[in-house]
Design a protein that fits this description.
Layout lengths: L1 H11 L7 H12 L1 H8 L4 H19 L1 H5 L5 H9 L6 H13 L13 H28 L11 H20 L19 H20 L6 H14 L20 H17 L6 H25 L3 H11 L4 H13 L3 H14 L4 H13 L3 H14 L4 H13 L3 H14 L4 H13 L3 H14 L4 H12 L3 H11 L3 H13 L3 H14 L4 H13 L3 H14 L4 H19 L10 H13 L3 H14 L4 H13 L3 H14 L4 H15 L4
Helix pairs in contact: 1-2, 2-12, 2-13, 3-13, 4-6, 6-8, 7-8, 7-11, 9-10, 10-11, 11-12, 14-15, 15-16, 15-17, 16-17, 17-18, 18-19, 19-20, 19-21, 20-21, 21-22, 21-23, 22-23, 24-25, 25-26, 25-27, 26-27, 27-28, 27-29, 28-29, 29-30, 30-31, 30-32, 31-32, 32-33, 32-34, 33-34
């Protein structure tokens, strides 16, 4: 940037300050909080790369006659366009550079007939840049993923909103006090909005300034900088609607020109008062110190996910995505109440936002509420069928629930949308191995290795498919060679999923022998005893797990379930049959359902029905449990019974439709 600014300064107006003006301008640009915003935002690094290559293209043209003659200055533009298509704005910027600084024309002279020969010369020199940039735009568009799409936002409303956004970006150069990682700006409704009128007045004023300053050579850097600012904003702030109305990182590229324009304008004014040079130095120091302090403060905000998204929720309280991401940061810190509050806030603002529902589903699963978790997974899928992540997380949930046929369907949908989705491939291979579907496992492992020839996991699955080795057998062989507590824990989980609960307990105890304070192993023992309905032993193991790891949410849920089941058993035992109310038994049946104990759920509902024969809610729960057991006729009968008792019972209607859909599916 120093050489870029310096060259423009020297060909515009030679003076003793030309060495210092570029240094100051570059320092201001690099220390500016907007630049820090872009650097911190890792997904916006493409702005940094594309801007770098645009400047490099100019440098090669300015300083290398060889590159200029052979059009090698266009090579950086090709590389930059691969990082971000905004690089192609090099062509119109190059056109105005040649016009202002090589042909020495003003902007007004473009429209004067006697200067048409000069204009034609400018067009001929800039034509290769235009042709190359058009080619790169078409090439990068062709290379876009088939799932890439432009947001469905009204172009007219987006355009009139961007008119004011230009003004906001301009003011941010001088007062960067409202920087925000994710704003909640809304579209303007019409051109009579005061924001639009301010924006139009600003744009006309700036363009008028550019035209006036282009009359004299020494003021042309001001014109060029203004034109650069507007041209750099065209890809993001015109008629091409993006999901975000504005974003701070979009200023990085335009500010190269705007900083040149502002610094040159100030320097031209101050040159009249050379005797105040010492005062200028103090002023420059204060400006740089202020910019540095602002950058330091923004870096503090960006220091962690929690601080960043907290800042977003304060500055953009109506931003659903901001609340969602703040909730995610709190969930990672196990601040569960704050996480739930944030997700609920996000859902209130945008109830049909797929990723908010997805994150709420993950949170509910973490908290052990599997029924609500599945509800939110389904909501996410209903609103985000084009997103591979949504299909994957629901499919992974179904896999964890042991609903392998459903999981296979969802995970295959992931691969239809994104064939290289590695985690979906791993989950599918795990299911195929667990189900002894060796041909499918082999085919998927081989296709994975075509994408990633050195994928160690795929190689293991391929070997297992050929040797027809199940996960348990493979892990047992590995443990024989190298026993570790972690491997015994994995073995315990595999036994648990295979419903070999006594073997699961044995493996977990071996893990504890090697690692006495292994909370996760005690939790596995708790769950195994819970599944065996040995609640005293489950409670003892669960309490030990929480003693070792107080914030262990899964262990807390398992312990709570064990205590609830023990209480239910006591309440429904021979000495306490009359103590259990239908409502209490219904609650217990839901807990059994959440734990995947579907037979126990049905049994408990039937106990409730012996006390209250017209209990529609109990029949609805029986329906849901039978669906999970794939006994669809019994499920349909139960829900029909519920609806005869309560014809308007919405949950029973939904469960009945669910049972009918599952029954209608072709058998695998």
């Amino acid at each position: 940037m120093y050489f870029f600014y310096g060259h423009i300064a020297n060909i515009s107006h030679k003076n003793t300050w030309n060495h210092y003006i570029p240094i100051i301008a570059v320092a201001c640009y690099l220390l500016h909080p907007v630049s820090a915003e872009t650097i911190n935002y890792i997904s916006a690094r493409s702005d940094l790369q594309s801007t770098f290559f645009v400047i490099l293209g100019f440098i090669l043209y300015m300083y290398s006659p060889f590159c200029k003659k052979n059009y090698l200055y266009l090579l950086p533009i090709g590389i930059g366009a691969m990082a971000k298509p905004t690089t192609i704005m090099f062509a119109p910027m190059f056109f105005f550079y040649v016009l202002l600084f090589e042909e020495n024309m003003s902007l007004l002279q473009i429209f004067q007939k006697n200067h048409f020969p000069h204009l034609w010369s400018v067009i001929k020199r800039s034509l290769p840049a235009f042709l190359f940039c058009v080619f790169m735009y078409l090439f990068t568009s062709y290379m876009n993923s088939p799932t890439f799409y432009i947001e469905d936002i009204p172009r007219w409303q987006y355009l009139i909103t961007q008119v004011y956004i230009h003004f906001y970006y301009f003011t941010a150069l001088f007062l960067p006090i409202h920087l925000n990682a994710d704003t909640d700006w809304a579209l303007l409704d019409n051109i009579w909005d005061i924001h639009f009128l301010i924006g139009i007045a600003f744009i006309l004023t700036m363009l008028y300034t550019a035209f006036i300053c282009s009359k004299e050579a020494k003021y042309r850097p001001i014109s060029f900088g203004i034109l650069w600012f507007f041209l750099a904003l065209i890809p993001t702030s015109s008629i091409i609607p993006l999901s975000e109305v504005m974003n701070d990182h979009r200023m990085f590229f335009p500010f190269v020109g705007l900083m040149l324009s502002v610094c040159w304008a100030i320097s031209m004014y101050l040159l009249k008062y050379n005797h105040l040079a010492k005062i200028y130095l103090v002023g420059i120091f204060l400006i740089l110190a202020g910019l540095g302090y602002g950058t330091f403060q923004r870096n503090e905000v960006w220091h962690s996910q929690s601080s960043l998204w907290k800042d977003v929720t304060i500055k953009s309280p109506n931003n659903a995505r901001g609340w969602m991401n703040y909730g995610r940061s709190q969930m990672a810190l196990n601040h569960n109440k704050e996480a739930e509050r944030s997700f609920q806030k996000a859902l209130k603002i945008a109830p049909n936002y797929a990723y908010i529902n997805l994150n709420m589903a993950v949170f509910q699963e973490k908290m052990g509420d599997l029924v609500n978790a599945e509800k939110y997974y389904k909501n996410a899928l209903a609103n985000g069928r084009i997103y591979p992540d949504v299909w994957y997380h629901y499919g992974s949930f179904l896999n964890r629930m042991g609903r392998y046929d459903e999981a296979i369907v969802h995970l295959n949908e992931v691969l239809k949308l994104s064939s290289a989705y590695q985690l979906a491939r791993y989950d599918l291979m795990s299911i195929y191995q667990g189900n002894s579907q060796w041909d499918k496992l082999q085919a998927l492992a081989e296709s994975t290795l075509k994408l990633q020839p050195n994928d160690a996991t795929a190689k293991l699955y391929l070997s297992a498919s050929k040797q027809k080795t199940g996960k348990i057998e493979r892990l047992l062989a590995d443990i024989t060679q190298n026993p570790t507590p972690e491997k015994y824990l994995d073995l315990s989980l595999l036994y648990s999923r295979a419903e070999q609960h006594e073997a699961s307990i044995d493996a977990a105890q071996k893990a504890i022998t090697l690692k006495p304070n292994y909370a996760e192993a005690y939790n596995n023992i708790c769950y195994a005893y819970l599944s065996l309905q040995k609640y005293e032993q489950a409670i003892a193991a669960g309490e030990k797990a929480i003693q070792l790891k107080p914030d262990f949410e899964l262990a807390k849920n398992n312990l709570k379930a064990a205590k609830s089941y023990k209480d239910a058993l006591t309440a429904t035992g021979e000495n306490g049959k009359n103590q259990a109310t239908p409502a209490f038994l219904l609650e217990q049946s839901l807990k059994y359902y959440n734990q995947g104990l579907f037979e126990k759920c049905i049994e408990t509902c039937n106990q409730a029905l012996t006390i209250k024969p017209d209990y529609a809610e109990a029949y609805s729960n029986i329906c849901a449990a039978y669906i999970q057991l794939k006994q669809y006729d019994k499920a349909i009968a139960a829900c029909n019974h519920a609806l005869r008792i309560a014809p308007q019972y919405e949950l029973a209607k939904n469960n009945l439709n669910w049972a009918k859909r599952e029954k209608a599916k072709p058998a695998n």
